[in-house]
């Protein structure tokens, strides 16, 4: 399981009218472990940022004057994300910009290069309907320190999102091992070995607890647009 946690900063809000990516960051997570590998670059957009955007990210035209253009770094970026699942907060926004940049140099769309794109904002909204689910709000909810986040930055926001995403998806882990890396027989064998090692007191859940659990799994199914890991394991 390879996730790439991705974020961008842009000159404005509208890729279709010429706004450009000015910072691009991606962090690698493999089997729920941060590997320390990342991709990060500032980009020369050949245009100024809108004043409102500049207030958010603080990245000036002067700072970007000697930075590479998107086409100069695209091969390294695509090599980095190849074969991964992209995790992006408010993914439609970043995907529109990535696709606009790729199409500008006749390189297709971002989903040509990754397995899928998952919107962590949509996932959070499914878990916490009616609540604030901005990155700052999720940092507060999961105890992730963002005290050093005075301005938006793609690398910092990717690092924060990686911690939030790992916390937010903790319920989909197998309590044993990563089920993606184990066959059914391997899982069964490990269960038997671990059960034999200790004498556990089993407390049966109440009907209300079972109903709450199923409701939570329904939310996870909806978020992953399929069957969550818990239900796959329960079916084995």
TrEMBL record:
InterPro entries: DnaQ (IPR006054), DnaQ_proteo (IPR006309), Ribonucl_H (IPR013520), RNaseH-like_sf (IPR012337), RNaseH_sf (IPR036397). GO terms for cellular component: cytosol. GO terms for molecular function: 3'-5' exonuclease activity; DNA binding; DNA-directed DNA polymerase activity; metal ion binding. Its cofactor is Mg(2+); Mn(2+). Residues 2-174 form the Exonuclease domain. The active site is at residue 152. Binds 2 divalent metal cations. Magnesium or manganese. Substrate binds at residues 7, 9, 52, 57, 157. The keyword Manganese applies. CDD domains: DNA_pol_III_epsilon_Ecoli_like. A divalent metal cation binds at residues 7, 9, 157. DNA polymerase III contains a core (composed of alpha, epsilon and theta chains) that associates with a tau subunit. This core dimerizes to form the POLIII' complex. PolIII' associates with the gamma complex (composed of gamma, delta, delta', psi and chi chains) and with the beta chain to form the complete DNA polymerase III complex. It holds the Pfam family RNase_T. It catalyses: DNA(n) + a 2'-deoxyribonucleoside 5'-triphosphate = DNA(n+1) + diphosphate. It comes from the Bacteria. One of its GO terms (biological process) is DNA replication proofreading. Keywords: DNA replication, DNA-directed DNA polymerase, Exonuclease, Hydrolase, Magnesium, Manganese, Metal-binding, Nuclease, Nucleotidyltransferase, Transferase. The lineage of its organism: Bacteria, Pseudomonadati, Pseudomonadota, Betaproteobacteria, Burkholderiales. Gene3D superfamilies: Ribonuclease H-like superfamily/Ribonuclease H. Its EC number is 2.7.7.7. The keyword Zinc does not apply. DNA polymerase III is a complex, multichain enzyme responsible for most of the replicative synthesis in bacteria. The epsilon subunit contain the editing function and is a proofreading 3'-5' exonuclease. This is DNA polymerase III subunit epsilon. It comes from Jezberella montanilacus.
